[in-house]
Amino acid sequence: MFRLSHLITAVVSSLFIYSTSLEARTVTIGSKKFTESVILGEISRIGLEAEGVSARHLAELGGTRILWNALLSGDIDTYPEYTSTIQTELLKRQFTDLNDMREALKEIGIGMGEPLGFNNTYALGMTKARARELRIEKISDLQNHPNIKIGWGDEFRRRNDGWPGLKATYRLPQRLVRGLDHDIAYRALQSGDIDLKDLYSTDAEIQYYDLKVLEDDLQYFPRYEAIFLYRLDTARELPKLGAFLRQLEGRISEDLMITMNRRAKVEKTSSSDIATDFLNQTLNLGLKEEIAGRWERLYVRTVEHLHLVTLSLSIAILLAIPLGVLAAKKPLIGRFIIWGTGGIQTIPSLALLVILIKPLNMLGLTGIGDTPALIALFLYSLLPIVRGTHSGFLQIPLSLRETASVLGLSKKTQLLRIDLPLALPSILSGIKTAAVMNVGFATLGALIGAGGYGQPILAGIRLDDYQLILEGAIPSALMALVVQQVFDTSEKYLVSPGLRK
Questions:
Q1: Which of 100, 95, 51, 61 is nearest to 81 (CA)?
Q2: Is the pLDDT of residue 419 over 90?
Q3: What is the pTM of this model?
Q4: Hey, is 218 helix, strand or coil?
Q5: What is the rounded CA–CA span in Å between residue 31 and residue 371?
Q6: Is-contact 393 458, C-beta < 8 A?
Q7: Kind and range of the H or E element at 29?
Q8: How many of the other CB atoms lie within 10 Å of CB of 402?
Q9: Which residues of 406-445 are buried (b: 16+ CB within 10 A; e: fewer)?
């Protein structure tokens, strides 16, 4: 009855037709999920555009590994990184100097510029009041406080140059630590929910919250010189990329970086404005960055969000309804269909987005942007629609099926004229559930560069700016309500009055 192999092929092809790839000569810049990296990403984007190079900036893509893998796969062309991170986390080798590191990177097709001029190393911090109360001045003093409340950023908690190595070097007794988002942990520190957190030495929050930075008395933390990594093939194709990045080398002092971070965090200045001011003052470019207004940003984010929701839901409907019918008519196969679609729902959404990156790269597709977000949303949409269709068909009275057989109706006619209309209320209920869920899930797509309402939410969390958070959260909630109302209204026209009752 159903050509599932054809349907599956059509679904997969439809998902992959849309790609986030831009013109060959567009430079894609990535940045990590913290303010300094976003500012550096904007500096490179605006500077390259001033040089006549088409560029886009995928901001706040996540942690080190996501950016590094995206660079290796060609999903991005350049991003700001730190020398000790390259050594301990990415290449996992000791180097005698930067030239030695540069040669190792060159072997895998990656170029590395000279340091930008500042060191952003790790540090540990507490509120000054809590440090005085516990008499803690240096990291080794933590040996006397095994029960201190600690909140580490997720990367610091797992990295070899983070908590594992620090704990071994200082022989620290603490065992229970909480994993927190780096920006949220600052607020937890102020509220007293934690006593100690990891810092980046150029964080504006250190001065903003008047924190005590503990002395690294065993000199565990190395220097983390900021540099730009870039793909050598892109630099050969676009010589202006390397030429511009060389102009930044040695131009950003530690004090200047802290000032730029403070403007973003405390003064709520946009990263684009900060980057433009830096380029004008440092390189005398005479730029004037056009900043989109709130309504313009809302329009762009709404279009991006609707694209993610409608495309993923439409393709899910094409596959899930036939699967639901098959599950109802073939109980043995149906168990596997329900089990499979239900199993997908148990995968955490953020984990699924990251898991999809490598398989997509192996298929020659981009692992960041719309593609993985669409696939994840499509997969999450299957279960509600399959269950709704399955339940709707099981609820059809046996007497009606027998009557259809007696009348000699073909299977196709019975399906289209009797089964689907009778099951329609349950099918629509499943589709409505999937649509409302997708509106919420789609906000996570911003973590891999898919845009949508998640982008202002991420930026608001990073900058402690509730207006930005609401700029994404309120429209997302309103869209979910509108979607639900659209389906409620549609049901009145699509379902016969007798079935509605």
A1: 61
A2: no
A3: 0.81
A4: coil
A5: 19
A6: no
A7: strand 27-30
A8: 10
A9: eeebeeeebbeebbbebbbbbbbbbbbbbbbbbbbbbbbb
